[in-house]
Specification:
two-stranded antiparallel sheet; 6 helices; mainly alpha
Length: about 120
């Protein structure tokens, strides 16, 4: 899906209530588009660990406008399933696809034992 509103409409069809009931959760998943606006933004939250983080942010359940309690984890799973081809990847699935670059492994010593440049 390309927009959070369509995810929210889908949630309303599945769980009842109105799309506005679900929009904050779907906006949270896709807020990472601010940093990277293609599919790669999904590596930050579109995985099993991201779904559990969503539950920590929004609580175990929400009460929709129809008066029904809906597990936040189910809403998160629905979002990820819709965006990731019907599966919920792990964070390891995403990270294992990163091609290592030399700069990623270079550590720089800081603090005690390092020399500071003179002004």
């Amino acid at each position: 899906m390309t927009h959070t509103y369509y995810h929210a409409k889908s949630s309303a069809r599945v769980f009842g209530g109105e799309p506005d009931d679900y929009l904050p959760i779907h906006n949270w998943f896709d807020a990472t588009k601010e940093s990277f606006c293609d599919f790669r933004h999904r590596a930050l939250r579109h995985h099993a660990e991201g779904i559990f983080e969503c539950e920590r942010v929004f609580g175990t359940t929400i009460l929709n406008s129809a008066g029904k309690e809906v597990p936040v984890r189910y809403i998160g799973e629905q979002h990820v399933l819709e965006d990731c081809g019907g599966r919920v990847p792990s964070l390891a699935d995403w990270l294992s696809k990163i091609q290592p670059e030399p700069w990623m492994a270079r550590a720089t010593r800081t603090g005690h034992g390092t020399r500071r440049a003179q002004p």
